[in-house]
Amino acid sequence: MRLNSPKINIISKACMKASRSLIRDFGEIENLQVSTKGPGDFVTSSDKRTEKIIIEELQKAHPDYGIITEESGIINKSNTSNRWIIDPIDGTVNFLNGVPQFAISVGYEENGEIKCGVVFDPIKNEFFCAEKGNGAYLNNSRIRVSNKKIFKDALLVTGGPKYSSKIKEKIFSEFEKISKIVPNIRRFGSAALDISYVACGRFDGYWQREINYWDIAAGTIILKEAGGFVDFFEPDDKAPLKRNVLASNTNIHKELKDLIVKKNIE
Ligand code: IPD
Ligand code: CA
Ligand code: CA
Description:
This protein is an alpha+beta fold. Helix content is about 35%, strand content about 30%. The site of one calcium ion (CA) has 4 residues, from strand 5.
């Protein structure tokens, strides 16, 4: 069975087209021109080319829609009712180092709510997608979050902090606190895949501070439609595109949240 939805089909076509040059670039990684965007945050010509192809494809279908992208900023600012949210390569540092753990992430937001999304890993050929009310899929199979109930047995994943983060100490102490309870925490370097892996039960939970909206917009609906729970804790009104996110199966959600949010207030 496959998720058959007009919006997912549009996104899928854009991802497939963009992934062709992305796969080629990955194979020739050493020839790529790399310029520095900031410490610990690189942007490659591949990011830009992938994003351009995706935008062109999505605009063919809906020229009037707003677009929030990592590389080009906001397009069609006046349309805030229908927006695509794009991260052309989530996991750029992996990509740049020849590590096959990165994805294209495209979400569709309607009146402030993510309605559908795709996270596509072109190297492993894993296509995660979901649409509100219609379930979540990995390739042609329906996916669900894990059923793990015992928090200390959970396999968690996280990311960050960025080199430039001003709250590094807080993030490290949070990690230390959780790692004293949960023995296995991974750090794979692609938030979009991290959250999608929770959706298909490979991981039981994911959390991260200071994440950008485009990193997890598509993943959010994939996780929810897979029966998981997403929480955006401690929102910052001054940085609307930044998020602190916690995503997990429903069983361990409270324990993870209590550990991060409550204990930080104490
Ligand atoms: C990054 C990845 C990484 C996360 C960073 C993100 P990028 O996205 O999702 O896992 O820890 O916070 O910025 O820069 O590779 O698109
Ligand atoms: Ca990203
Ligand atoms: Ca990116």
